[in-house]
Known about the structure:
This protein is α/β, with parallel strands linked by helices. The chain is built from 8 helices and 11 strands. The chain has 2 domains: 2-103 and 210-236, NAD(P)-binding Rossmann-like Domain (Rossmann fold), CATH 3.40.50; 105-205, Dihydrodipicolinate Reductase, domain 2, CATH 3.30.360.
Amino acid sequence: MKIALIGYGKMGHEIEKIALQRGHEIVCTIDLNETGKFDSPEFRSAEAAIEFTSPESALQNYRRAFAANVPVVSGTTGWLEHLNEIKAACKNEGQTFFYASNFSLGVNIFYALSNYLAKIMSQFPDYDVRMEETHHIHKLDAPSGTAITLAEGILENLGRKETWSLNKAGNENELEIKVFREGEVPGIHTVIYESEADSIRITHDAKSRKGFALGAVLAAEFTKGKKGFLGMKDMLNLHP
Ligand SMILES: NC(=O)C1=CN([C@@H]2O[C@H](COP(=O)(O)OP(=O)(O)OC[C@H]3O[C@@H](n4cnc5c(N)ncnc54)[C@H](OP(=O)(O)O)[C@@H]3O)[C@@H](O)[C@H]2O)C=CC1
Ligand SMILES: O=C(O)C1=N[C@H](C(=O)O)C[C@H](O)C1
């Protein structure tokens, strides 16, 4: 299929490689300060645009792609305060938008596992829960989008935490997410349950960006012929 890339950084390059390997054509790449390209015939010919940019630019990019009637697959994190606006555009304007805070199969299995563990732990109040995430030093947002999705799943299934907090231990109603930024780490997420007797830890450790990029290309393939707001739940049927 014809794919446009919005954002030609670390993920844009990785996605390009995988898209070409899977027989797709990259018809247009749009990086910072190249917004004129949204009006080009090449961009308009795309059957999907895959967007990995920055928290501040994501919403504008979606709007520009929608104006050209190009479906969007996005993995950019840190923009979710605008989620309802995008859902409304899907519903009221007939747009197509696929979002995942993490496109890797492994993390989506991990989400399901963490939700299930939280459900079990709802019966065992002696265990407190906290989370840790580690990423490369270039990351702009904290906590990671993946950590927020994990935290939301824990809050929903555990029933004894009201909200999550960033690097702030001590309040028993809050689920602490401790954030580390180190070297070129692609992404590590850990959920820790601890009682006086023992601790249980589950970790997802990405070996590279390949899994994220493959998931994004599979998502672009999945959007073909579909309308509305889509996510990994629709594609993988993994977490209830
Ligand atoms: N959902 C998932 O599975 C994953 C999500 N991510 C998320 O994706 C995003 C990008 O990650 P990554 O590729 O590592 O970051 P990079 O910084 O390597 O790449 C982002 C690219 O987007 C460009 N850019 C910035 N603003 C615009 C704009 N307005 N229009 C077009 N291009 C723009 C940047 O240009 P310049 O460098 O000149 O600023 C850069 O080339 C982050 O939010 C990250 O959290 C990352 C991995 C997996
Ligand atoms: O910025 C990154 O690199 C990543 N961002 C995503 C996030 O914020 O969860 C996904 C992955 O962890 C890599």
